[in-house]
Amino acid sequence: MAASELYTKYARVWIPDVEEVWRSAELTKDYRQGDGVLQLQLEDGKELEYKLDPKTNNLPHLRNPDILVGENDLTALSYLHEPAVLHNLKVRFTDSKLIYTYCGIVLVAINPYETLPIYGSDIINAYSGQNMGDMDPHIFAVAEEAYKQMARDERNQSIIVSGESGAGKTVSAKYAMRYFATVSGSASEANVEEKVLASNPIMESIGNAKTTRNDNSSRFGKYIEIGFDKRYHIIGANMRTYLLEKSRVVFQADEERNYHIFYQLCASAHLPEFKALKLGKADNFHYTKQGRNPVIDGIDDAKEMSTTRNAFTLLGVNESYQMGLFRILASILHLGNVEVKDRDSDSSIIPPNNGHLSVFCELMGVTYQDMSHWLCHKKLKTATETYIKPVPKLQAINARDALAKHIYAKLFNWIVDHVNKSLHSTVKQHSFIGVLDIYGFETFEINSFEQFCINYANEKLQQQFNMHVFKLEQEEYMKEQIPWTLIDFYDNQPCINLIEAKMGVLDLLDEECKMPKGSDDSWAQKLYNTHLKTCSLFEKPRMSNKAFIIQHFADKVEYQCDGFLEKNKDTVNEEQIHVLKASKFDLLVELFHDEEKATSPTGAAPTTGGRTRLSVKPVKSKAGQSSKEHKKTVGLQFRNSLHLLMETLNATTPHYVRCIKPNDFKFAFTFDPKRAVQQLRACGVLETIRISAAGFPSRWTYQEFFSRYRVLMIQKDVLTDRKMTCKNVLEKLVQDPDKYQFGKTKIFFRAGQVAYLEKLRADKLRAACIRIQKTIRCWLARKKYLRMKHAATTIQRYVRGHQARCLAKFLRRTRAAIIIQKYQRMYVQRTCYKRKQAAALAMQCILRAYMARQLYKALLREHKAIIIQKMVRGWLARQWFKRSLRAIVYLQCCIRRMRAKWELKKLKIEARSVEHFKKLNIGMENKIMQLQRRIDEQNKDNRSLSERLNGLEISHAAESERMRVEVHRLRGAEEDAKNNANKVTTLLEELERLRKDLKNTQKEKKAIEDWAKTYQDEMEQMISELKEQNHLLKNEKNDLNRLIQEQGQQWTEKMQRALKEETQQLENDLNEERSRYQNLLTEHLRLEEKYDDLKEEISLAVNVPKPGHRRTDSTHSSNESECTYNSEFAESEEGSRGGEDVSKAILDMSLFLKLQKRVSELEQEKQSLQNELDRREEQFQRARARDDEEHKKARGAELEYESLKRQELESENKKLKHHLNEMRQSLRGSAEAGSAAPGSPPYTVLLDQLNSSNEELEVRKEEVLILRSQLVSQKEAMQHKATMTEPLPYIEDVQKLTDAKEISQAYMGLKDTNRSPRFTRRPTEVNELVSRLRSPFPDYHKLNEDGELWLVYEGLKETNRLLESQLQAQRRSHDNEVEVLRGELQSVKEDNNRQQQLLAQNLQLPPEARIEASLQHEITRLTNENLELHSDDPKEYKAYRISMLRRMVDLMEQLEKQDKTVRKLKKQLKVFAKKINDLEGGQMDVSPGQTTDEPVHPVNIPRREKDFQGMLEYKKEDELKLVKNLILELKPRGVAVNLIPGLPAYILFMCLRHADYVNDDQKVRSLLTSVINSIKKILKKRGDDFETVSFWLSNTCRFLHCLKQYSGDEQFMKHNSPKQNDHCLSNFDLAEYRQVLSDLAIQIYQQLIKSMENILQPMIVSGMLEHETIQGVSGVKPTGLRKRTSSIADEGTYTLDSIIRQLNSFHSIMCQHGTDPELIKQVVKQQFYIIGAVTLNNLLLRKDMCSWSKGMQIRYNVSQLEEWLRDKNLMTCGAKETLEPLIQAAQLLQVKKKTDEDAEAICSMCNALSTAQIVKVLNLYTPVNAFEERVSVLFIRTIQTRLRDRKESPQLLMDTKVIYPVTFPFNPSSLALETIQIPGSLNLAFLTRV
């Protein structure tokens, strides 16, 4: 595809800009070939026409898709050009706060000017062992790559750190060295890595200074070689320095400082040791006040001085040498304050008794006169004579400054040499990694000799960089077999030739320095004459004849010639040097012992006085050699050292770090594009981009290409061969074959082709999305339409039916009403008509006659009147009309005017009032509506009243009319009816009265209506008020109820929360204590191993042969080491004593002195503890005497209670015996009468009695067993009184109680219930115990794994010694009873012989006689014992009778069983004998003896097993063999598969039981010590084998459980069987050894976790993050050059199934070894924590993994792990909770991240993640497809604002080294010791079962 085809509408491009360098714009119109103008729209919406260059017609750079913005590697960008690089760096730096970015092989580091938490040990551990492209860019990744390539390729490495001042070069180099020191460690205990790091503060103090651009600018270059041995441990280092800026010692520009060391000295001048230096503030010295800014913000110079001195001490510079260095530095400051005055124009003088010069001479140990003389004079030498000439003031000041610079340079070199000596190692160096921290390209307003040398060095480095980049590109192409075409790249060899070639700048400068009258001007003219016309890179400024311009690779630089010769010569007055050499100050003499002669040759000693002329012969000795040596100028030396540096770099594999300064104002995370692009051009980053873009910059593996662009393929294009598939697809998609190339493993694309493929992919996905959206929306719309249609039809059906029914009902009612009205109206009308008809007929008859008469008269009068009226009325009408018309018109005008005014006024008032009302009563619409409704109702009532009133008025008017008619009628009939006059008057009066009545009625009606209305209003108002009050009361009630509920809920939640917090705090404290203790154990183990290693080193160094201990090499014979382990400690002590005298040169004396001091402290502590032990022992003896008295009193009541209990049990046994006899008699009777039927009453009665008796018998049997054990214990106590007492368990139980009340209760309870022989001696009384428990020893109480309180080391040691003293006292009493015991033993032997004789006799008898004889013998024995007990103690006799009766009952039951068995066997034998006789014809005769002897063996075998006590006996000399066969040479796999779990532990405990049984304390101690040491030895030898460690963890725990289970402590005996209780240890209390074994188990557990972590670590990242468990979800983005094969090892790819298989393997191994279930849960929890922590840490450090699809993959993987937990029934072990941070991080990747609601949801969801982790995930979130959106910076700031109140650790990564504190809950075994069989495969035939 042509590039011009990409310039379509909406395409985004970069156009140049003056302010921002490059600016983004968007095409508003498609570009066509030949167009000279592009129509663009800027991001701010401004339209722009961009004119193309008509000559080149170059189109502007295209922008990369948003999906590629912010990539880790700039070479992963589709379009590689300057604006893309600049924009990507800016986005990463400002938006994502990422300061590191890859650019091919270069790491670009931008100085953030802010301390970032990305350099801790957790980050170092995260990058250790990782491939370079797998993690986000970091300086640690570059360091790890160098370290890995050094180990893999066995080739030396170099890290080249460059950049301008203030870009962070020194910090980057420092972090690289810190990484090497942390990861590799040192090969010995000399702490080489600490010394390497300690060199940094020293070199910074003497070589760094504050400049205008940087507060800690390195003013010299350094190359540090860190040496490694064959195991790649640091063994030493070496430093080379380049071009120290000596001029800074005597001159500093404004806002700059001298070297830090001077200000550190001035800040520490108040210290006593610095008083002799006579220093003051920095402002008091000329050399430190010129910059006028002696203080750096945030830096404490006094504190830095302390750091520097500590570093000197660590590097072996003793205090005297340090003070000597500080004397020289202080003398330089005083030298700068020496005032030189003019004596005349050609000479100068120093005033006598100059204070600063006196201090200088005093500090330097030189004479005042000599120094003052030679500061103002110089010596001139000719061929025959020597002159001493005074110098003017200016030259004297320059000579003073030159001397100061020279002294400082010598001091600097001396310090560097001593640093190198201290870092030098005697071990042969195998390889090294060099770190080059060198100045970057510099250009200032005034550039001098220093800038020239700096830029010359950068030219050389840039050439090396270009060649290396070009070489890597060529290797990559040739490796992939891509046709290689030469790429044109900038070669700066001409510029280098201009500087260093023959007749070059440096050559001409050296030549000019040799000239007697050489000057800067003459040198400049030579440069112009030589290079101005011949070299295009050399130019002359227009306005200057003392400067020249060189075109460097980065920029043009103008150099001022002033000072070049002087700086190149670097001369100093040799007579001044001679004065210093004659000093009494040894260190100063040492600095100048190899000083060569100065530029002006001299040969005589200086003299004092004025101008003197001497004639001296020239010195010939070594003159030629010295003059030849001195000809090396600074430029020549720098050129030679630079050539050596380039040779070193070319012999190594370089790694490049380019440091960028983002702005000149040191603002944090502020990016200045102009400054950045200037540095990018200068440091070669853009050249790397150009070289990459010139070829095929985008490179994809075939699998990555297939995975990414599978959507562009159709099914028939997909083949099994991925390579062919990709080829076929590319041929269809990209028509131009030059745009891509196929390599062996990768596809190479030209620049822009990936963007084109991405566009095709996005278009295809967009079309697919549109099609999916169209289909889904159509389906949703159709579903919605059908649903709405169905709903509408249903609604219509019901509504129409309802309407039809209503219409029909209305029609029926209407028709019925019409019919009713018709008949009703007809009846009313008919009745009215008939009444009116009758009245009308009567009235008509009368009126017609009257009217006829009146009509005649009227007609006559009217006729006459009409004539008169016609005339009068006409006139009057005309007059009235005229007046009325005028009045009406005038009145209308007035009225209308008045009404108009009123209306206007009313409207104005109404308008104002309405508007005001609206403003004041906004929101009162509802009230207005209510009032309006009420007004309408009142108007309606008024209208009804008005209608009624109108009706009354109409009726009144009709009545009045009628009355008037009647009055007219009466008046007409006046004359005819005079008699009726009174009647008319009466009628008138009646009429008037009726009118008054009507008015009164109307008034009453109106009053009633007004009252009713008022009453209604009042009632309505009252009702509304009551409603309001009711509503208020209800609201108040609800508020109170809600408040009560809320308060109750708050109190409940508060109490629950407080309880939960308190519980959690206690658990945390407990875990912290356990973790602290276990960490101490780990540290103790590490120190022991370190101690052993030291002893081995000492023994090897001394080479003194040790008897019994020979060590050949690391693979020496296990037999030799195993057979001599007992004497190992003693031999090591001998070796250490011998090594103290012989190996002082090798042994670290500081460590030896520390150990010796520690031994003396331990001896003093031992003596104090011994004194305390004696005092406590006396108190204990006194307290025990008092307790014995109390015990005797309590013992009497106890014996009385036991006697009552025995009597009760005897009566119960008699009753049981009586019932048993009755049952036997009833059984005999039933046998005589015949067997009763099962349902018969006798049978039922007997069965019930038998069942009840059996139940009661079982209960009594248990009670008798308890009493019997008590009797036996009492008997043993009486026989062994005051022997082998063990007060320790009792003391330990008391110590478990924390206050006096609990101790008192426990003490009284023990006095009442204790019957154990170990408590024959009482412990101390309560108060003494309380005082001991509350003693002021630190950490007195702690919880061990069983939840019991234990004492710390001092308390245990004291108790142990107390017990030992008691045992020694008791052994003396034991000796007196030995004879008694021997007599008893002899009697037991005789009894045993008798028993054997009886047994032999019984075996010869038949079965019946044998049983009877055994019963008789048993009765005799019991009788004898009965008599003995009765004679000894009557009370014990009663108890013994109970046990005897019990045994008699058991014997009788056994006799019955034997009788039944014998009868049954006899019957069977008879039947078999009969059958045999029938078959063989009587040939075989079976005697009765033979038939009855067979069943004897089953009887005797259990008796022998019963006699076995579960002990194993071994001889003392077999102990080594036991340990060897059972521990050292035992293979766990065979034991785990073929034998019972924990068999070695059981065997060892059985051996221990026998040693305890024979009361051999030495044997017990020796066996336990041997076992513990052997387990440690086998774990040290095979500690990496998970199976071995798991096996011995299981056996150690089982051995510990056995010691607890059989210790005799009641708390451990709850689950024991009676037989197991009999097997308890009887003589020794091994509580202290239990603690030692517990500590050993903790160490084994930690070693198990480490072994497991080493196995899981390589699988986690690949299986949890990288592998696609759900295929097709994750999209592969373009990768950069960092994903190169050189960093990727050839390993198999791990998947989630690999992790689960490994977890299954771990679980099955632990189960096979019989590991405790609780311990397995703890191991699984630790496993899941490691998985979650490593996964989350890698997620936080990998930008490519932070995407939506990866979040889905992680959540699926976590669900698989949870499913594994469910399958193993381990969901309650807490493992799932350890994955919570990872789960929340995965959810964070998938949730919506736009609005404030999303931010609130994220803050509430991610409670297990820290704020730093949440912000880091949001910053790293990267869209994989164009449909995803980035997280805005505003949203991230919103999250930070919401989470700023969180109190949490600022640490970013989880600590993967955390090990949860382990506990070992007591798990007793149900396995009986006597049943354990020892297999022959263990080779333990020398053990004897006892």
Describe this structure in words.
The protein is α+β, with helices and mostly antiparallel strands and 1890 residues long. Helices cover 63% and strands 7% of the residues. The protein contains 55 helices and 29 strands. A seven-stranded mixed sheet has the order 6-7-22-8-17-11-12, with helices on both faces. Strand 26 and strand 27 form a beta hairpin. Helix 13 packs parallel to helix 21 and helix 31 runs antiparallel to helix 32. The protein is extended and about 185 Å long. About 11% of the residues have low confidence.
Largest sheet, in brief, is: 7 strands, mixed
Structural class determined from secondary elements: alpha+beta
Please give the count of helices: 55
Give the overall form.
Answer: extended
Provide the gyration radius in Å. Answer: 58 Å
User: Which assembly state applies to the chains in this document?
Assistant: single chain
**Helical content class:** 55-70%
Strand content: 5-15%
Give the strand order, joined by hyphens, for the main sheet: 6-7-22-8-17-11-12
Q: Got a strand count?
A: 29
First-to-last CA distance: 94 Å
| Uncertain spans | 596-630, 1103-1152, 1230-1240, 1275-1330, 1332-1352, 1482-1506, 1684-1691
Instruction: Report the average pLDDT across residues.
Output: 77
Write the layout of secondary structure elements.
Elements: E1 12-17, E2 21-27, E3 37-42, E4 47-51, E5 61-62, H1 82-95, E6 100-103, E7 106-110, H2 121-127, H3 139-153, E8 157-162, H4 169-184, H5 192-207, E9 208-209, E10 217-218, E11 221-228, E12 234-242, H6 260-267, H7 286-289, H8 301-314, H9 319-336, E13 341-344, E14 347-349, H10 355-364, H11 368-375, E15 377-381, E16 386-390, H12 393-423, E17 431-437, H13 449-479, H14 493-500, H15 505-514, H16 520-531, E18 538-539, E19 547-551, E20 556-560, H17 564-569, H18 574-581, H19 586-591, E21 612-614, H20 623-630, H21 634-650, E22 653-660, H22 673-683, H23 685-694, E23 698-701, H24 702-708, H25 722-733, E24 740-742, E25 746-749, H26 753-920, H27 925-972, H28 981-1102, H29 1118-1123, H30 1128-1142, H31 1149-1233, H32 1241-1279, H33 1287-1295, H34 1300-1313, H35 1326-1333, E26 1342-1343, E27 1349-1350, H36 1353-1404, H37 1407-1432, H38 1434-1480, H39 1488-1493, H40 1496-1507, E28 1512-1513, H41 1519-1528, H42 1532-1538, H43 1543-1557, H44 1561-1581, H45 1586-1605, H46 1618-1622, H47 1631-1666, H48 1696-1712, H49 1717-1740, H50 1748-1767, H51 1775-1778, H52 1780-1790, ...
Parallel strand pairs: 7-22, 8-17, 8-22
Antiparallel strand pairs: 1-2, 1-5, 2-3, 3-4, 6-7, 9-10, 11-12, 11-17, 13-14, 15-16, 16-21, 18-19, 19-20, 23-25, 24-25, 26-27, 28-29
Helix pairs in contact: 3-4, 4-5, 5-6, 5-8, 5-12, 6-8, 9-10, 9-12, 13-14, 13-21, 13-23, 15-16, 24-25, 28-30, 28-47, 31-32, 31-36, 31-38, 32-38, 34-35, 36-37, 37-38, 41-44, 43-44, 43-45, 44-47, 45-47, 47-48, 47-49, 48-49, 49-52, 50-52, 53-55, 54-55
